[in-house]
Fold:
Amino acid sequence: MSLSIARNAFARSFKPAFSTTAVLSRGKATLPDLDYDFGALEPFISGQINEVHYTKHHQTYVNSYNAAIEQVQQAQAVGDVKTQVELTNVIKFHGGGHINHSLFWKNLAPKSQGGGEPPAANSPLGKAISQYYGNLDNLIGNVNAKLAGVQGSGWAWIVKNKDTGALEVISKPNQDIVDGPHIPIVGIDAWEHAYYLQYKNVKVDYFKAIWNVVNWQEAERRFSA
Ligand code: MN3
Structure:
């Protein structure tokens, strides 16, 4: 799979969730292509987890989002406002799940493709890490503390505050997306489905391990975009 094809598929899959005009069109959300095999993140994330996570969980967000959009269009056609309002929660949840997971796959990479390699100290992201967190280990510690604090299901994110330029660490419940002044840089999925098949109840081991396959090149691109 070439990078450009992967990028195009990624861009296509993003449009419906971000753009009002796309929502009103017949365009469907689709699973983005992965840049690596399911087993390529082992031993840190098992191939079985990635396969189930991508083909079952992410696919369900895509399917349910598409179904809800169709229902909205039908409700719109007959002037059924109540149904349209009810569907907004479904769209927020499943559309959010699609957006978050599309970011998640891209912000991971196998060791052989640079996974876990820290950003260069003199890069824009490297400098921001140094400025706001002192060093990468301290930033990761902050994210892991946020992850440990997620009650039920949710995510922790390293974000850039576009108003201040600051690097921040935030958590989001359920499938709420990173929004407002925040631009997602790295997102870690703290839902049980992201680790349970491998780590069972010891989620802190998953939070420690996943940094071995975080794609800091992608983070750098998002930070500098
Ligand atoms: Mn997930």
Observations:
- The chain has a mean pLDDT of 91.
- Residues 121 and 127 are 6 Å apart (CA to CA).
- The radius of gyration is 18 Å.
